Amino acid sequence: MTRIIQGVFDFQRKVFGPMQGLFEDLHGGQQPLALFITCSDSRIDPNLLTQTEPGELFVLRNAGNIVPPFGSATSGEAATIEYAVRHLRVRDIILCGHSQCGAMQGVLAPTAVADMQGVSEWLRNADAALERARGLEPPPTPEQILPRVIEQNVLLQVEHLQTYPEVREAAAAGKLRLHGWLYHFETGEVTAYDASSQRFVPLANAPRQKLLAPLNESGES
């Protein structure tokens, strides 16, 4: 706690003063550029990664950057998505996974988290990512399986996003874009899913348009 409390004092003394005008402006409300959904992992810092200021990202974090499908249960994820899209009218949703994700390691080895009931139940929202990773051609090697599960989980959760009525409506009206990212924190690289090539490519090479089509009424993309 000493390190954390000292950080607060350092912020107040060294950071807040030069940025006081910004914080005073934010007192009147927020207009974030995007909803950024990512993992709770302490190695991930969305604002550091994107070099954004307070007020520019509306952030949703949980274990495994998971979005439960709409209607599965009342959740903070559902409330955050609804608020971001309907009230804040964000134009972009970025779903960002990351390398060496502990949650996806739990999907790969469920016995390792079997004694944590909440974790085990939560990770069921990502089970399909493992099935899809195993079904890839060519089949992933043991060294490749975790990275492939992490990738497939990003795509799975973007699909789950599209089950939310407010997301479908905004995307269909051309007012919302969905993006699937992967942050490789050990190298600083960010890759993004390119639907045209059906693979993750360096962010600089990824198209900036909507990456995945909204789901139709039957629930299929």
List key phrases describing it.
6 strands, disordered C terminus, 17% strand, 221 residues, 38% helix, 2 domains, Beta-carbonic Anhydrase, Chain A, alpha/beta, globular, six-stranded mixed β-sheet, 9 helices
Low-confidence stretches: 211-221
From the N-terminal CA to the C-terminal CA, the straight-line distance is 47 Å
Radius of gyration: 18 Å
* CATH architecture field of the largest domain: 3-Layer(aba) Sandwich
How many E-type strands? 6
In CATH terms, the superfamily of the largest domain is Carbonic anhydrase
The coarse overall form would be globular
Mean pLDDT: 93
Strand content: 15-25%
Order of helices and strands: HHEHEHEHHHHHEEE
Domain count: the total is: 2
DSSP helix fraction: 25-40%
Strand order of the largest sheet: 2-1-3-4-5-6
CATH topology of the largest domain: Beta-carbonic Anhydrase, Chain A
Q: Just give the CATH class of the largest domain.
A: Alpha Beta
Give the count of helical stretches: 9
Outline of this structure?
The protein is built from 9 helices and 6 strands, in the order H-H-E-H-E-H-E-H-H-H-H-H-E-E-E. The chain has 221 residues and is an alpha/beta fold.
Describe the overall structure.
The chain is an alpha/beta fold and 221 residues long. It has 2 domains: 1-30, no CATH class; 32-205, Beta-carbonic Anhydrase, Chain A (3-Layer(aba) Sandwich). It contains 9 helices and 6 strands; from the N terminus they run ααβαβαβαααααβββ. It has helices at 2-15, 20-26, 46-50, 76-87, 102-108, 117-123, 127-134, 145-161, 165-172, and strands at 34-39, 57-62, 92-98, 177-184, 189-194, 199-202. A 6-stranded mixed beta sheet has the order 2-1-3-4-5-6, covered by helices on one side. Strand 4 and strand 5 (189-194) form a beta hairpin. Helix 7 (127-134) crosses helix 8. The longest helix has 17 residues, at 145-161. It is globular, with a radius of gyration of 18 Å. Residues 211-221 have low confidence and may be disordered.
